[in-house]
Amino acid sequence: MAELTIKKKRPKHLDVTKIRLPLPGILSILHRVSGAGLFLLLPLLLWLFQCSVDSPESFGTFKAVVSFPLVKLVLLGLIWAFCHHFCAGIRFLFLDMHVGVDLPSARLTSKIAFVVSLALTVLLGAKLLW
């Protein structure tokens, strides 16, 4: 029996373009990416917060910086990262309590996490940035 498992054909390399990851797997990877993005851009957020509350002159600097379209796009990405990380984190807390671990409910909660995070991103982005 051990000889059969050793002689089994295994791929020599993984073709990443042909791997089909299920929706919960994509959610998990994006949860990690959004957490890393939030961590790496935390100095920018802190600087923007300091500019917004320090003095009236620095608030003018804040408004000038945030008025650029590229900065608005980055802030919209950060809003999405926060909303996605929050929604996926709640989902993972339920999974840690063994709620929704079967395949149909795992797929459903993944879809719900994506929809809620995107809806919150649209609402918060429209309210805060435009």
TrEMBL record:
Signal peptide: none annotated. GO terms for biological process: tricarboxylic acid cycle. GO terms for molecular function: electron transfer activity; metal ion binding. It is found in: Membrane. Its cofactor is heme. Keywords: Heme, Iron, Membrane, Metal-binding, Transmembrane, Transmembrane helix. The chain crosses the membrane at residues 21-49, 69-94, 106-126. InterPro entries: Succ_DH_cytb556, SuccDH_FuR_B_TM-su. It holds the Pfam family Sdh_cyt. PANTHER family: SUCCINATE DEHYDROGENASE CYTOCHROME B560 SUBUNIT (PTHR10978), SUCCINATE DEHYDROGENASE CYTOCHROME B560 SUBUNIT, MITOCHONDRIAL (PTHR10978:SF5). Part of an enzyme complex containing four subunits: a flavoprotein, an iron-sulfur protein, plus two membrane-anchoring proteins, SdhC and SdhD. The complex can form homotrimers. This is Succinate dehydrogenase cytochrome b556 subunit. It comes from Azospira inquinata. The gene is sdhC.
